[in-house]
Amino acid sequence: MAKGKPLTVPERRTNDVFDEESVAVRSRWRNLAAFWVLGLCNNYGYVVMLSAAHDILESKFGATTDTPMEFKNGTMTVVNTTGIRSCNTLSTGAILLADILPSLVVKIITPFLPFYVHARLATCVLFSAAGFLVVSLSTTEWLAILGVVITSLSSGLGEVTLLSYSHQYPKQVIATWSSGTGGAGIIGALSYAALTTWLSNEDTLLLMLIVPIIQGITFWLILVHPPQASIPITKNGIDSQEHIIEVPRKSFREKITLVPGLLKYMIPLGLVYLFEYFINQGLYELIEFDGIWLTHAEQYRWLQVDYQIGVFISRSSVNLVTIDKIWIMAVLQFVNVIILLFETLYYYMPSIWLVFAFVLWEGLLGGGAYVNTFYRMSTEIPRADRKISLGIATMSDAIGIAMAGWLSMPVHNAICRLPQPSRVGS
């Protein structure tokens, strides 16, 4: 083509199509990356806050009881004077529920409220920042717990909102969102542990204010928001006939009628989380190997890291492996409960590496159940019902975690009162 020669109509159309496709490819990768970062930022505070709040409570307020105490596994524990076992103080359970119940309440209520996505995300960013500030600057115990509550509200609102919002994007964003939430476990735990080696607990939390800032930048500057009332077009024409007709907003009663049809997704996921967090909150601390290269406190921390690695791997795997029968993972997770419960009672495992293997498997099952549930929903539920359905389903894991919190504490305390057994083979 000669220089300066005007383009013909076919040439202009070809260039327009090429430009549109290149823009679409760039937008696709931006959205995938944005949902990964949003998943990371949304769960980061939730992961960090529980151990951070325990540290703040211990360092600022300490223990006022005359009962023998020791700092163990990130919490103040009551030393059993008979030399048998040790148990957590009541504050541990209080902060644990403070980190779970507000998120559950938000997940139950929010799907039935108007969907103002920008207002919701602004609330998430502000609450996340406020949580870090309140816990780090707290001068009383109730203020530290309030900071945990605020962070939990931010996490719960962010999850239900962004999963609902994902219905306007390709289903692959579910995979990157889930991978980001899994990455929050590893990155959150490691960054907090690393920073507190150089900084105080308070200064570490203040430095983490960068996380809600990144969350806001990602949502408003990196994520490509679909225009209102847009009709997606593909190479083969209109993407779906559902986009031609504007679907009216559902009433509260219409939203409630969707719940029975979602139980096939919600019940298995809730059971997986019930069993998973029963293990995490009730059993980890009671597993102890004497005379190895790790102290009991170090064993506990590495079990947590091991679990988070499993969660991250499985939450990042849905594009490679998809699982339709979530109930199978619930059954397998219950088997983990039995195996590890008997380990706390009888100390029958000959090596800690066997425990690490089961804990990694536990994390793989938990993360796999989460990502496959929402991925299935994004492909099986009609588009008109998808946004509200994804929002409603987020409450199932929170219900499972809350039930595990209530159940694990009495079981944990009951086992603490039992004699500590001798390790089989020792």
Automatic annotation (TrEMBL):
The chain crosses the membrane at residues 117-136, 177-199, 205-224, 326-346, 352-375, 387-409. Its main location: membrane. InterPro entries: Battenin_disease_Cln3, Battenin_disease_Cln3_subgr, MFS_trans_sf. Keywords: Lysosome, Membrane, Transmembrane, Transmembrane helix, Transport. It comes from the Eukaryota. Pfam families: CLN3. It is found in: Endomembrane system; Lysosome membrane. It is a multi-pass membrane protein. Belongs to the battenin family. This is Battenin. It comes from Xylocopa violacea (Violet carpenter bee). The lineage of its organism: Eukaryota, Metazoa, Ecdysozoa, Arthropoda, Hexapoda.
